[in-house]
Design a protein that fits this description.
8 strands; eight-stranded mixed β-sheet; single chain; alpha/beta
């Protein structure tokens, strides 16, 4: 299948590489020329502008957008929609707020253009293991991009969530849960680290817990990797950013009268991490760097 791809950053570039390895044709665009050249070396067709990307795709077109949420996504979708025609499909794979996705889908539908909201999880490891994809939007458009989804995801790693907004809503809650899991591991390792009399080896413990314990997980494997590189995380500041999804999840819990104390407190802990140093915040910063390539602040 031939697809356009806009946004070749940490996630997008790797997704394009996986698509190319899967035998698809990709027309790639990014404002950063070096990123476009990198995908061109891998076999993608380069585009120097959104217009050129559209021109290199035959109707009906399918274009995957992987840019930061908010204004960058808004501008990209608006710019592309003025260049597309009825029957074309846009896929927003970023972490957009689900209500924005619902609005955008309605606006594009009036032009005969379909918008799929594709919650995408897998971080920088998706190239190797595949991406978990949560898709919302028109069912027919979802079926049309099936070959793309099959290549990007591992077995049983993609599914149709429902109407427009459903994909990004599910991804939003997914990220809220992620906040709570990270906080749980972080607090546990801080307690272990504080017991100085035992001189506990955190890397060894992380490895041990992954051998059949009830708290074993991929995140714990990444914790082991992080402690292997830096046993006490001395090179990392305990400063933890949030990209919006945790806030949206908490707001949704309040709107739906759903008690979500753990996710809420995990979000507040991220705010606290920006005010003073803590070991638990270092753990979260290290894990986010391990699974998503998110930047860490060095001392």
């Amino acid at each position: 299948m031939k697809i356009g791809f806009v946004g070749l950053g940490k996630m997008g570039g790797r997704m394009v590489e996986r698509l190319l390895k899967g035998g698809h044709q990709v027309v790639a665009f990014d404002p950063i020329r070096e990123a476009v050249k990198e995908t061109e070396h891998q076999g993608a067709l380069p585009a120097s502008s959104l217009q050129e990307l559209v021109d290199k795709l035959a109707m009906p077109r399918a274009i995957w957008i992987m840019v930061p949420s908010g204004e960058p996504t808004e501008e990209t979708i608006t710019s592309l929609s003025s260049r597309l025609e009825p029957g074309d499909i846009l896929i927003d794979g970023g972490n957009s707020f689900y209500k924005d996705s619902m609005r955008r889908a309605q606006e594009l539908s009036a032009k005969g253009i379909s918008l799929l909201d594709a919650g995408t999880s897998g971080g920088i490891w998706g190239l190797k293991f595949g991406y978990c994809l949560m898709i919302g939007g028109e069912a027919e458009a979802y079926k049309e991009i099936g070959p793309i989804l099959e290549t990007l995801a591992p077995k049983d790693g993609y599914a149709y969530m429902g109407p427009s907004g459903a994909g990004h809503f599910v991804k939003m809650v997914h990220n809220g849960i992620e906040y709570a899991l990270l906080q749980g591991y972080a607090e546990g390792f801080e307690i272990l680290n504080a017991k100085e009399e035992f001189k506990l080896d955190l890397e060894k413990i992380a490895h041990l817990w992954n051998q059949g314990s009830v708290v074993r997980s991929w995140l714990l494997e990444l914790a082991e990797d992080a402690f292997t590189k830096d046993p006490l995380l001395e090179s990392i500041r305990g400063y933890v950013e949030d990209s919006g999804e945790g806030r949206w999840t908490v707001a949704e819990a309040i709107e739906q009268d759903v008690p979500a104390p753990v996710i809420t407190l995990s979000l507040l802990e991220r705010f606290r991490s920006r005010q003073e140093e803590s070991f638990s915040a270092k753990v979260i910063a290290a894990l986010r760097n391990e699974f998503g390539g998110h930047g860490v602040k060095k001392k």
